[in-house]
């Protein structure tokens, strides 16, 4: 059957839901990833404005080639690579009207052989088996999807430790934990090749984390990116969390806020900004109405751009449950924090997520009169 995304029409072999991911009996096309692809196209547009030399685009795991076809339609010199012969044949047919080529290659081999300006790594599950090659073969912008949210956020602890070479912790801000674990791991992989990787846009949507990393081959800058890594200490009882930059954590024995001994330390994870606000605003402006997920993409990107970009977000419902108070509207809650003199913003991770520089105790007091 044919599907049209953002003005690009491709042939796909039956749309399947994310639950059947990984069964390789037919070429994979996931309609739930349309938001991911719409945002990708908007990023490619904004990035072309920022870096006019970025011309070549590789979807290193292309499946039907829909993403590469959309990049080709934007004027990028696009390549769709996949190990699967059916995928390559289909991607070849799908790319033909827009230009670009399909290659039957292993992503790791291809990316170790030469450079592409923009590289997309969009595998089943974790991108880490491809991270080293992706860093080696990307000149400017590395776009990465991770769908293994349980290892990333610490819910599957051992696989998270193995894949991401860190200690992930299962907290109520799990989407952000996952994103910061992912970025931290990629930044360290880039630094091992003397490359600085800086996230210029990121988001977490239902089943995946997505980040866009600008790469710079510069050892000094690479060292500087490592300064943005560190640890989060999270109290499971009072929900306060503190973060500290650095290579070795100074793990508190008890929570400095409530004295509980149920303190979890996560890290090293990325503690720096997950997005460049100005760039992300431009990405939001590049979302066009011909995109199937235009409304969601625009609103999510605007939230990311306006988000207080510090670790880590809170969930109003979780806090209100803790305080045995009814939850109120998010606008009202955020406004009350601001009126009390704190920095506060919505956070894109969920409808009840927000960021603030207030402590949990300060938030409780600042919002006591609501509801
Ligand atoms: C999630 S799908 C890609 C979806 C596609 N990027 C899109 O936007 O629709 C993952 C693809 O990776 C391919 N793949 C798995 N291992 C690979 C490898 N080592 N090199 C290249 N492709 C690989 C699979 O055949 C599958 O088609
Ligand atoms: Zn505590």
UniProtKB/TrEMBL annotation:
Pfam families per the UniProt record, alphabetical: TRM
Reaction equations catalysed: guanosine(26) in tRNA + 2 S-adenosyl-L-methionine = N(2)-dimethylguanosine(26) in tRNA + 2 S-adenosyl-L-homocysteine + 2 H(+)
GO biological process, one term: tRNA N2-guanine methylation
Gene3D superfamilies hit by this protein: N2,N2-dimethylguanosine tRNA methyltransferase, C-terminal domain, Vaccinia Virus protein VP39
Keywords: Metal-binding, Methyltransferase, RNA-binding, S-adenosyl-L-methionine, Transferase, tRNA processing, tRNA-binding, Zinc
Protein EC: 2.1.1.216
Domain of life: Archaea
Positions annotated to bind Zn(2+): 235, 238, 255, 258
Keyword Transferase in record: yes
Enzyme class: transferase
Binding site for S-adenosyl-L-methionine: 37, 67, 82, 106-107
Molecular-function annotations in GO: metal ion binding; tRNA (guanine(26)-N2)-dimethyltransferase activity; tRNA binding
Function description: Dimethylates a single guanine residue at position 26 of a number of tRNAs using S-adenosyl-L-methionine as donor of the methyl groups.
Family: Belongs to the class I-like SAM-binding methyltransferase superfamily. Trm1 family.
NCBIfam families in UniProt: PRK04338.1-1
Protein name, as recorded: tRNA (guanine(26)-N(2))-dimethyltransferase
Organism for this UniProt entry: Halobaculum gomorrense
Gene: trm1
């Amino acid at each position: 059957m044919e599907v049209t995304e953002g003005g690009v029409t491709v042939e796909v072999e039956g749309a399947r839901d994310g639950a059947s991911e990984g069964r390789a009996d037919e070429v994979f096309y996931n309609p739930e990833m349309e938001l991911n692809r719409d945002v990708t196209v908007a990023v490619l547009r904004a990035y072309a404005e920022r870096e006019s030399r970025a011309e070549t685009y590789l979807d290193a795991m292309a499946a039907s080639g829909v993403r590469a076809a959309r990049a080709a339609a934007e004027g990028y010199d696009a390549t769709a690579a996949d190990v699967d012969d059916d995928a390559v044949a289909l991607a070849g047919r799908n790319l033909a009207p827009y230009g670009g080529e399909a290659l039957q290659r292993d992503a790791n081999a291809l990316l170790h052989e030469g450079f592409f300006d923009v590289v997309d790594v969009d595998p089943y599950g974790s991108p880490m088996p491809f991270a080293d090659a992706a860093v080696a073969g990307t000149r400017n912008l590395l776009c990465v999807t991770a769908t293994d949210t349980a290892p990333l956020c610490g819910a599957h602890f051992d696989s998270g430790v193995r894949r991401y070479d860190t200690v992930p912790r299962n907290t109520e801000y799990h989407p952000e934990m996952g994103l910061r674990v992912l970025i931290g791991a990629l930044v360290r992989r880039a630094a091992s090749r003397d490359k600085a990787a800086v996230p210029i846009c990121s988001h977490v949507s239902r089943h995946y984390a997505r980040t866009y990393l600008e790469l710079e081959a510069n050892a000094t800058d690479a060292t500087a990116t490592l300064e943005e890594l560190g640890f989060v200490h999270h109290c499971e009882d009072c929900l306060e969390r503190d973060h500290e930059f650095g290579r070795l954590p100074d793990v508190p024995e008890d929570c400095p806020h409530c004295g509980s001994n149920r303190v979890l330390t996560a890290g090293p994870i990325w503690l720096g900004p997950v997005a460049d606000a100005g760039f992300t605003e431009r990405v939001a402006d590049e979302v066009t109405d011909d995109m199937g997920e235009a409304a969601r993409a625009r609103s999510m990107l605007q939230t990311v751009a306006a988000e207080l970009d510090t670790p880590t977000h809170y969930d109003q419902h979780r806090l209100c449950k803790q305080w045995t108070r009814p939850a109120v509207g998010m606008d009202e809650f955020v406004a009350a924090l601001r009126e009390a003199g704190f920095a506060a913003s919505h956070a894109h991770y969920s409808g009840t997520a927000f960021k603030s520089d207030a402590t949990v105790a300060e938030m409780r007091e600042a919002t006591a009169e609501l509801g």
